[in-house]
Amino acid sequence: MIARPWTDDLPKCRNTCVASYLSQIGGNVNSTDDYLCFYCQTEDGSCLYGIFEPHNGLDAARFIMQRMAVEMLLPPPSISNSDEEIRDRLRNAFVSVEKAYIENYDGMIAERTSLQYRLQTLNETQISQNCDNILSRLKEIDQHLSGGATVVIALVHNNKLFVANVGETRALLCKTDDNAVLRVVQLTVDHSLNNEDELLRLSQLGLDVNKLRNAQYLGNQSGTRCLGNYLVKGLYKAFPNIGMAAAEPVVATPEIHGPIILYESCRFLVLVSAGVYKRIQEVRGCSEQTNKQLAQIIVENFRKQTNFTKVSQSVLEEIEEEFVSYCTKNNLTPKSNTHVTLLIRNFNFLPPIPQNDTINLRNPVQKPNERSSVRFNPIVQSKSNTLLNEIDSEIYSSGTNDLETNDSNIDTNRSNESSDISSCRPYDRDKRIKGYVDFSCYYENVAKARKNGTLPGFIK
């Protein structure tokens, strides 16, 4: 039985839904022992979120997750902290966690050095007697030392958002523009061998980046930054393709973004592990549109689900089902035991839930007296003849989907009206309902277009 992490007992942010588990294709994908995330709220209203994607086992990732919570919450950020102090706090947390990880494995690192020395000094008789045992123990130690995690942390503090990451875990901010189009902004940097800045850094260490780009591996991992995995850091010289580097090629230095002021246009935040969005890439084949496609799936599930706490789970199940179907159709064998995590923090896409009680991370079920239905306009128009949709079409065709800034557009034609969606309502064939179409958006956009001189001629 795995010990229950203390992060489970942190006060939870009620406007967050999560799903995190070890996905075993064809097996159970809903294990509650594999949570590698936290989403908590401090007494002064700050909120801290984090997801941790493991490498080579869960133990190191669990250690990193719990240590990161210690560094960020003991003591918690203060309202009086400046923006630069918050950025320093995030940066120092990653440094401290990496140091704690190495200290945690000091004994194994020393034992490994001793065993290698013994192996080199054995005579022929001793080799035949002891070699297998030594090699077996070295393999076991290397298995532990290669454990690590890629990480993304998000902090909401004084109505500002700060994000820090190492690796390919992502943070996406979904916000609407003046034309009610949902734009998806990737706040994090992918630390991979497809990142030209990372390749430049590696080339300055004396590595052949063309070979690395073709191999898509640095030692025993594909990413260029992570927490943990001592084998590709302190012991990197043992790997032929990175051993000639002038310094450790894989680093634990995070990218820090923020402060980002959370205006009303900011609808929701997504933290997602690479194992999730890479499945979308595999199935749909266009990496530049992955963030947009993920956001579309989330919005669709907002509209289908009546219980907000289940949205992340239903999104992962939908992605998993599509991925399994794709692999079966194309006779592909997916990588087993992929850990997937999706965390969604609602700002105002849905009405916020009061932060009065805590909820249990492992059983996040709403109480009977809590709002059990999602409120929003359930009507979805794709490309109708309304002025709003014509303006959206112009946005799509004008090239504002700027891949360099990782922005994407999604139609979210939502009026100012909201309605309850409840699966418990009885169906009445003859019952008439009130009209609920709100044309205010139409008239507002007509006025804008007339002012800008872009009003179509057929509209008076």
Walk me through what this model shows.
The chain is an alpha+beta fold and 460 residues long. The chain has 11 helices and 14 strands. The strands form 3 sheets. A 6-stranded antiparallel beta sheet has the order 1-11-10-6-7-13. Strands 2, 3, 4, 5, 8 and 9 form a 6-stranded antiparallel beta sheet that branches. A two-stranded antiparallel sheet has the order 12-14. Helix 1 packs antiparallel against helix 2, helix 7 packs across helix 8 and helix 8 crosses helix 9. It is globular and about 95 Å long. About 19% of the residues have low confidence. Pfam families: PP2C (PF00481). InterPro entries: PP2C, PPM-type_phosphatase-like_dom.
Order of helices and strands: EEEHHHHEEEEHHEEEHHHEEHEEH
Largest sheet: 6 strands, antiparallel
**Share of helix, binned:** 25-40%
Task: Report the principal-axis shape.
Answer: globular
> In oligomeric terms, what are we looking at?
single chain
Low-confidence stretches: 26-32, 357-429, 431-437
Count of individual beta strands: 14
Q: Within the largest sheet, what's the order of strands?
A: 1-11-10-6-7-13
Mean pLDDT across the residues is 79
Instruction: Decide which structural class fits the backbone.
Output: alpha+beta
Instruction: Count every helix, treating DSSP H or I runs of 4 or more residues as helices.
Output: 11
